[in-house]
Amino acid sequence: xxxxxxxxxxxxxxxxxxxxxxxxxxxxxxxxxxxxxxxxxxxxxxxxxxxxxxxxxxxxxxxxxxxxxxxxxxxxxxxxxxxxxxxxxxxxxxxxxxxxxxxxxxxxxxxxxxxxxxxxxxxxxxxxxxxxxxxxxxxxxxxxxxxxxxxxxxxxxxxxxxxxxxxxxxxxxxxxxxxxxxxxxxxxxxxxxxxxxxxxxxxxxxxxxxxxxxxxxxxxxxxxxxxxxxxxxxxxxxxxxxxxxxxxxxxxxxxxxxxxxxxxxxxxxxxxxxxxxxxxxxxxxxxxxxxxxxxxxxxxxxxxxxxxxxxxxxxxxxxxx
Length: 321
Hints:
The protein contains twelve helices and three strands, in the order ααααααααααβαββα. A hairpin with a 5-residue loop joins strand 2 and strand 3. It has helices at about 1-15, 25-45, 50-60, 70-90, 100-120, 155-165, 175-190, 195-210, 225-235, 240-265, 280-290, 305-320; strands at about 270, 295, 305. A three-stranded antiparallel beta sheet has the order 1-3-2. It is mostly helical.
């Protein structure tokens, strides 16, 4: 999985010009933005469906009959995700030279949590624990037995976490997704805020990824149980399952959202980047092997084709039918 991700990212950087900014490729980022806001809030129990999320984020309309707090959860997350994508790729005055700053951690949480907090604040929060401020309460043990540190030590632990983030050197670590998994898991262990730590942690994970030239990771709601099990494994010192989940998500987003949009109609792409809901990667490979889809086989045995060649293949299929 890690090798596949490295190869996909190398192709994006070397042949396709790297990750485009939100201003350069608005459609790519809108698709990722909707999916992330929907799935990340759904992991926490939000019941809005994807179409409701899209209407809310794009048009500001609350369609359906869900509780107001659920719409505000999604709106806050969507605002924070948009901020993350913009700041990651065009940081302006926010970037201090570090990969992530403590000020940015607070800003991500403030942006994500303020809308819902305005109408449904945490029932036990003091005035000093509003969005963007660290907790002043103790947190009970997690289901796996891990207990976050006492609230008085949160600031110190978060400064150590910032150092951990900024020590990431992906080009010198073979299994770098496991290092990234350790960073993500450590944030959740510290649990710096009274509420919204899962959402803030996934947003910060994506801030780090984008600043390193990778697309965001989307933890899909269907993978919620797998994600939570992987977090518990990481609590026990085994970051592998979480690292694999992150790597698989980033690779999927590269193939699904980024590569097809930046390649244009004629550039050669790996078959996973050309697959659709109606035409699977396996179907494309079979057509390439049989000579029905124009494609080129690489030295490593993988096939590449283009959007134009796939369109030609679909047209020829219709003619045969």
